[in-house]
Amino acid sequence: MTHTPTRGGATDHLANERTFLAWVRTAIAIMAFGFVVVKFSLFLRQLALLFLDRQIVSAPKGYSGLIGVALVVLGAIVCLLSYLQYKKTERQLNQNVYNSSSPLVVVLTIVLLIGSVFLVVYLLPNV
Questions:
Q1: How far is CA 71 from CA 23, 48, 67, 88, in A?
Q2: pLDDT at residue number 2
Q3: Would you put residue 32 in left (φ > 0), alpha (ψ -120 to 50) or beta?
Q4: Nearest CA among 61, 70, 76, 77 for reference residue 119
Q5: Quick one: which H or E segment has residue 1?
Q6: How many CB atoms are located within 10 Å of the residue 60 CB?
Q7: In this structure, what is the dihedral angle of CA atoms 25, 29, 31, 32, given to the nearest 10 degrees?
Q8: pTM for the complete prediction?
């Protein structure tokens, strides 16, 4: 009696889809946080225009806007990488072969850790 390999079951595909959707929620949260950072820096500049001397406002703006935009870009990259991982896992499930995605997890962890270090260094002088 020969055993034919079965394609990934429905539960495997649904788990893959749930994982993808969790990554998409994470990407949306990162992008939303970046948007808030940018808008908050604009809000602070508007307050400075209202209540402070215009010379102070023309001083260097800081990096909040740049950090916010970088977070939005990072969220978009996470979204793209999560889709690529989803499709890769889907192919593997259909072929009844699964290999873990350690490189993707390692890269994302390193990028987030580096970003965290930069944020801490940026925020420490303000504490």
A1: 15, 25, 6, 25
A2: 47
A3: alpha
A4: 70
A5: none
A6: 5
A7: 130
A8: 0.71
